[in-house]
Amino acid sequence: MNKACILCVDDEVNILQALRRLLRKEDYCMLTAENGAEALRILEKEEVHVILSDQRMPGMSGTELFSRVREQWPHILRIILSGYTDVDSITEAINKGHIYKFLLKPWNDQNLRLEIRQALDQYALARTNRELQQTILEQNEALRNSNENLEQAVLERTRELKLQNHALALSRAVLETLPFPVLGISREGIVAVANESAMALFGSRPGFAIGNPASQAFPGLITETTHQVIRENKAHRLRLATENLDLTITPLTGRFQGAGAVLVFGLPSPSTE
């Protein structure tokens, strides 16, 4: 908090002078006003933490002033300093002005200084509480937004995974129903994928099974060429005369580049004379 600012309001100049003398050794910003209207004008321009006001003043009483202050600057602590002790005046000050303290004139200097320090401590504590509450509200809002963003991200990721799973299932179905044999060979030379046509053609061949090395079921030319295709990242075609088949070996691309190759077997194209 900046230097504490106290506004003293009284229609008697000697009272204002006495208060100024009382508080001059304190590290306060000291402002004075001789009536309620002047006090309101000061409040429009200055940040005030505590107001000491006389109760009975011409034009606007201390209670009326504090009622206005409470509406516009509710955090300012309000102290009535009055020479009158009638119950009605005190009750009105409490009910309408929501005062912090009701003190009597003449005052005890030491007690008045103590009351002002306590009022400033109360103001600082209340402001700290307001700031903490605001921080909590902002953190809660940030947490709520974070949770909403996280939930949205989870929903989007779930949709993506569903689409990917659907696409994967569809791709698998297409692969299985292709009318020609298709194999997937890893860079380690392992048979990783075989569609239904490949299983029908090669399933009875000794050493052929998904998870087995391709070299156990196929001649060295096929496995050697497959390694070459993966290494050079370039497709290659073979004529398998003994099988009466054509073979196209294509390397995997994209993020799977270098991980393996696809082998597609087909009947040789009829020659034209």
Describe the structure.
The chain is an alpha/beta fold. It has two domains: 5-132, Rossmann fold; 178-266, PAS domain (Beta-Lactamase, 2-Layer Sandwich), CATH 3.30.450.20. Helices cover 48% and strands 19% of the residues. The protein has seven helices and ten strands. It has helices spanning 13-23, 36-45, 62-72, 87-97, 109-177, 196-202, 220-232; strands spanning 5-9, 29-33, 50-53, 77-82, 101-104, 182-186, 191-194, 236-240, 245-251, 260-266. α2 packs parallel to α3 (62-72) and α3 (62-72) runs parallel beside α4 (87-97). It is rod-shaped. The model has no long low-confidence stretch (mean pLDDT 88).
Which short descriptors sum up this protein?
273 residues, alpha/beta, Rossmann fold, Beta-Lactamase, 2 domains, five-stranded parallel β-sheet, five-stranded antiparallel β-sheet, 10 strands, 19% strand
Quick synopsis:
The protein is α/β, with parallel strands linked by helices. 22% of the residues are buried. It has seven helices and ten strands.
